[in-house]
Amino acid sequence: MKIEDLHQLFLKFPYATTDTRKIIEKSIFFALKGNQFNGNEFAQNALDKGAAYAIVDDEEFVVSDKTILVTNVLQTLQELACYHRNHCKAKIIGLTGSNGKTTTKELISIVLSKKYRTIATKGNLNNHIGVPLTLLSIRENTEIAVVEMGANHMGEIAFLCSLAQPDYGYITNFGKAHLEGFGSEEGVILGKSELYEFLMGKNRTIFFNADDPVQQKKLNGYGNKLGFSRENGENYQIKFEGAHPFVTLEVAGQIIRSKLIGNYNFMNCCAAVLMGKYLEVPILDIKIALEGFTPQNNRSQIIEKNGNHIILDAYNANPTSMKAALETFEKIPGNNKIAFLGDMFELGETAHKEHQYIANLAKELNLNNVYLVGSNFNRTNTTYTKLGTFHDLKSKLAGNPPKNATILIKGSRGMALERILDLL
């Protein structure tokens, strides 16, 4: 079946799904393959659960006229998404960076939703599968789509841009993330900047942090850009009023008090303000949107439990975000402060050095009560309590959980440190 014919079918059944556990009635099921599964085997199950059609790439599973055989299901999903994007009126905002992508995406979306019919990447569906699914969620009346793009190796952002064809773009920052795939911090900068390269090649609008020297250098000489800055009068000025612990900013005479902790979230708020102003969202609506946003899903989430004041930031971690979290935590008042830090993944040959750096940094910040969890932290040279596994931590806290403490929980997704909540 040609992509244009498949697209006509998709317009009649405009929901794409890849998981039979989440089948939407009258959707199209794409039978993707993975290292541990073969989606073709679930095609009939998807149809039985109400899917209108199933796309497969194994002739053995063509069992009815509701099963469509293609050469490669993943490639078909991507081609359909690109074709659909090019037939939609929506403007696309491409978003990437080492840290803060998802929070920034949510902030931009909630601000622009005050004026426009806006959709955004759900959760963390930001890869070669998630981006196509986001593009296929654009409807005829969608005006703006905020598309988050993740990457852990060179060329991935360029590929995602070829699918999404963004009209605007923003990079949150360049940090020590996915060093195993990118090879170095310079590799991270080159890989993430593929978004800038795409936009500059088509003379499309770039939003940027004008106080970031790396971004300034990358965009030097490019005309179609708009930056925000605390002090540089050549750019849109947004004043940082502090984070004690919640970020407060002043813009156009309005004080905006967010529910986000940490200086690093100031830049995330600024990106949403800048895009809102550029796209003519009234400043009072921007204020209402940002002040109404509450972080969720283990991202700088504030939780009160059994007398403990908890900062749950366990969705993911890398050396840059870990450093920012510790520096923020150090400034929060409290006599009984405890940090639970979990291993940072995908650091390759730099893993030992970066974990030792974080252990040393915690000591420099005079954080006295720190638990280091995971095999990488277990190899560091430090006087802090080291626990090789989560089970070791569970045993350590059994019968003596923290009480009336201010707690930071931070680690990579694979550590699943949100489980600490059950130990408190």
From TrEMBL:
<keyword id="KW-0573">Peptidoglycan synthesis</keyword>
<comment type="function">
    <text>Involved in cell wall formation. Catalyzes the final step in the synthesis of UDP-N-acetylmuramoyl-pentapeptide, the precursor of murein.</text>
</comment>
<comment type="pathway">
    <text>Cell wall biogenesis; peptidoglycan biosynthesis.</text>
</comment>
<dbReference type="InterPro" id="IPR013221">
    <property type="entry name" value="Mur_ligase_cen"/>
</dbReference>
<keyword id="KW-0067">ATP-binding</keyword>
<feature type="domain" description="Mur ligase C-terminal">
    <location>
        <begin position="299"/>
        <end position="379"/>
    </location>
</feature>
<dbReference type="GO" id="GO:0008360">
    <property type="term" value="P:regulation of cell shape"/>
</dbReference>
<feature type="domain" description="Mur ligase central">
    <location>
        <begin position="96"/>
        <end position="275"/>
    </location>
</feature>
<dbReference type="GO" id="GO:0071555">
    <property type="term" value="P:cell wall organization"/>
</dbReference>
<keyword id="KW-0436">Ligase</keyword>
<keyword id="KW-0131">Cell cycle</keyword>
<dbReference type="InterPro" id="IPR005863">
    <property type="entry name" value="UDP-N-AcMur_synth"/>
</dbReference>
<feature type="binding site">
    <location>
        <begin position="97"/>
        <end position="103"/>
    </location>
    <ligand>
        <name>ATP</name>
    </ligand>
</feature>
<comment type="similarity">
    <text>Belongs to the MurCDEF family. MurF subfamily.</text>
</comment>
<keyword id="KW-0963">Cytoplasm</keyword>
<dbReference type="Pfam" id="PF01225">
    <property type="entry name" value="Mur_ligase"/>
</dbReference>
<keyword id="KW-0133">Cell shape</keyword>
<feature type="domain" description="Mur ligase N-terminal catalytic">
    <location>
        <begin position="17"/>
        <end position="62"/>
    </location>
</feature>
<dbReference type="InterPro" id="IPR035911">
    <property type="entry name" value="MurE/MurF_N"/>
</dbReference>
<dbReference type="InterPro" id="IPR036615">
    <property type="entry name" value="Mur_ligase_C_dom_sf"/>
</dbReference>
<dbReference type="InterPro" id="IPR004101">
    <property type="entry name" value="Mur_ligase_C"/>
</dbReference>
<dbReference type="GO" id="GO:0009252">
    <property type="term" value="P:peptidoglycan biosynthetic process"/>
</dbReference>
<dbReference type="Pfam" id="PF08245">
    <property type="entry name" value="Mur_ligase_M"/>
</dbReference>
<dbReference type="GO" id="GO:0047480">
    <property type="term" value="F:UDP-N-acetylmuramoyl-tripeptide-D-alanyl-D-alanine ligase activity"/>
</dbReference>
<dbReference type="InterPro" id="IPR000713">
    <property type="entry name" value="Mur_ligase_N"/>
</dbReference>
<dbReference type="GO" id="GO:0005737">
    <property type="term" value="C:cytoplasm"/>
</dbReference>
<dbReference type="Pfam" id="PF02875">
    <property type="entry name" value="Mur_ligase_C"/>
</dbReference>
<dbReference type="GO" id="GO:0051301">
    <property type="term" value="P:cell division"/>
</dbReference>
<dbReference type="GO" id="GO:0005524">
    <property type="term" value="F:ATP binding"/>
</dbReference>
<dbReference type="InterPro" id="IPR051046">
    <property type="entry name" value="MurCDEF_CellWall_CoF430Synth"/>
</dbReference>
<protein>
    <recommendedName>
        <fullName>UDP-N-acetylmuramoyl-tripeptide--D-alanyl-D-alanine ligase</fullName>
        <ecNumber>6.3.2.10</ecNumber>
    </recommendedName>
</protein>
<keyword id="KW-0547">Nucleotide-binding</keyword>
<keyword id="KW-0961">Cell wall biogenesis/degradation</keyword>
<keyword id="KW-0132">Cell division</keyword>
<dbReference type="InterPro" id="IPR036565">
    <property type="entry name" value="Mur-like_cat_sf"/>
</dbReference>
